[in-house]
């Protein structure tokens, strides 16, 4: 059985964008699991994603207020086909990240995080896959907004795709 995961972070709706781009909503509709690694900013977006996603896992970020913090954990953990996932908003500086995350998440196979708005895809010496989807609404110093798409099959990550969005919210290139 193949499971598709859509990974989002740092949406900052409605501060950085009024809403998610239409392409992201299309991806939500196609995904078996949606993951949001924090900085939603509004509970309205959490409600919209909860209503639309088949399965939603999310955490709060540093820009999320009391209502979101009351509804979301700082760290989320779940399994997909026996693969152990975790999500957190902040992981600290890029330097030393792999070592720190190996120590903090010894029981995870994949860690999804946000905060930097910088896409990231590495594997730690301990075998933990670290993924940051960037932001679909606020590219900051990146050339594009982005999100990640993952396919899990037979208990293993089969592929991870970074999807780049142009300013109009459509696939770039």
From TrEMBL:
Classification via Pfam families: Metallophos_2
Calcineurin-like phosphoesterase domain segment(s): 5-154
Root EC class: hydrolase
Keyword Metal-binding found: yes
InterPro entries reported in the protein's UniProt record: Calcineurin-like_PHP_lpxH, Metallo-depent_PP-like, Phosphodiesterase_MJ0936/Vps29
EC number: 3.1.4.-
Species lineage: Bacteria, Bacillati, Actinomycetota, Actinomycetes, Micrococcales
PANTHER family xrefs: VACUOLAR SORTING PROTEIN VPS29
Native organism: Gryllotalpicola kribbensis
Family: Belongs to the metallophosphoesterase superfamily. YfcE family.
Name of this protein: Phosphoesterase
Keywords, ordered alphabetically: Metal-binding
Keyword 4Fe-4S appears in the UniProt entry: no
Swiss-Prot/TrEMBL cofactor(s): a divalent metal cation
């Amino acid at each position: 059985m193949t499971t598709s995961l859509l990974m989002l972070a740092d949406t900052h709706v409605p501060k950085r964008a009024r809403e998610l781009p239409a392409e992201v909503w299309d991806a939500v509709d196609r995904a078996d699991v949606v993951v949001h690694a924090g900085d939603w900013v509004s509970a309205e977006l959490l409600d919209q994603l909860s209503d639309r996603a088949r399965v939603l896992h999310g955490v709060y970020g540093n820009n999320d207020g009391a209502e979101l913090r009351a509804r979301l954990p700082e760290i989320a953990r779940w399994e997909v086909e026996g693969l152990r996932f975790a999500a957190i908003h902040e992981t600290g500086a890029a330097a030393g990240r792999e070592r720190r995350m190996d120590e903090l998440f010894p029981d995870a196979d994949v860690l999804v995080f946000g905060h930097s708005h910088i896409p990231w895809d590495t594997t730690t010496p301990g075998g933990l896959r670290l993924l940051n989807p960037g932001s679909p609404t606020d590219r900051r110093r990146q050339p594009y907004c982005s999100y990640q798409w993952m396919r899990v099959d037979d208990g293993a990550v089969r592929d991870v795709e970074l999807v780049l969005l142009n300013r109009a919210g459509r696939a770039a290139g």
